[in-house]
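S., here's the first fold you wanted:
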Amino acid sequence: MTKRISLVFLGSFYFLLSATIIQGETSSMMKIEEGEHRILIKRGDRTVFVYNKAPTEEAAQHEPFFSRTGYIHPVYSPSGKEVTGDFAADHKHQHGLFFAWTKTRVGEQKAEFWNQKLKMGEVRYHRTLNAVGGRERCELVVEHLWDAKDKAGKLTPAIKETWKVTARDFGDDLFLFDIESVQWQRTDVPIKIEKHHYGGMAIRGNDQWLLENGETNPSIVLQTDEGLERIEGNHTRPRWVTMAGPIDGERAGVTVMGHPSNFRSPQWVRLHPTKPYFVWAPMVEEPFQIEGGKPYVSRYRYVVSDGKVSAEKLEEIYTDWTKVE
């Protein structure tokens, strides 16, 4: 059964007129399956990733302040390997594929959306605006609400964010999807993102990429498009970063590309020296503000694979994505 949603589209932004969801036809290659707690993006009968509208079952096993919604996990390789991790023992606040600012001010109020243990802010799923399946691509649009939190637990509106996630049929060897994040001020005071060495659009890798003693598995690749590893590549400004390694004995990985239209592009990246995660961090050298009427827009492309993707293939994918029509 097909249901329809009414949206007004202006540039990169969606405005909801009704709350009914379009479901892709069953014959579509790219499908969206939305339930009460999860949204699955699929290519045929294979799941590309899961978007979490509600806390996962694992969330109940940890302190309540580590619970989160409005993020993607797991991300799967074409053979079904989970390339993302969630609630890792060393960093329980890192959730698959997530967006969080670190040192933040909402007017004069301090806020923190990354380190959940501080209880100074939260990001949550609010509603689904659009979900359309198709033969060659599918599109999901969801809305997140960000709130600052004071010591008494009182929430103060900070940011309204939409994610437009577009997954494409890219053949049997690769999964490919794009995320466009648009953040708007939800308050009368500016949102200041302070200078810090990390924070932004992040990805946490599979727990198998970390040894039991907390050290990095030496077989893990964390490398920029210029061939720089995690130490020398930290706080450089690459076009893309690849994170890959063995999962259940076979290689799988993900490359995340930053679009040249992004703020301060190419953005700095924080490549963690031992952990399987990295983040695009545009505040590394100086702060910035999200102000009324001026949305903060950022775009990223995710290329998920089994085995190794050649630099030539990644260059082709990046060029095709960023070329000016």
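And the second, which I think is the more interesting of the pair:
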Amino acid sequence: MAQNSRRDLTTTARARLAALREKKPPTKAAQIRALWPDIKAALDGGHTLQSVCECLEADGINVDTRSLAVYVSRIRRASAGNTGLRSLPSPNGEQFEREDTQPVTEASTSKAKQSADPLANIRDRQGKRSGFDYRPELADPKELI
């Protein structure tokens, strides 16, 4: 009996999520993200943000050029941060290929680890220090007098 009720819950949940996927997203940012592959293709094809805004307004998404520029820059920044991903799912369930800006290598990960250390520059200077290096904690008091 418990198995049947669990199956019923999953089927109803899947049906509701499928119906939700068909609805228009509630925010402009989500609508722009849903249309991002098409917007990116238009921008890569040489169209301006103004012409993309006009197309979006014809479909009922009222966004000005400045706001669209902000949305586009945020999406591009987020996709640049995920360089290890090859393809990303779009909201309608399809996969679209993403061009990698930089392959992830050991050198790039080691640079990221170094840049995360706030004292890395001090450690580098201490290692390259030349000249007289007096450390009182290492000195023997009998030899000093």
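Why I say that: Residues 2-22 form the longest helix (21 residues). The chain has a mean pLDDT of 77.

Talk tomorrow,
H.
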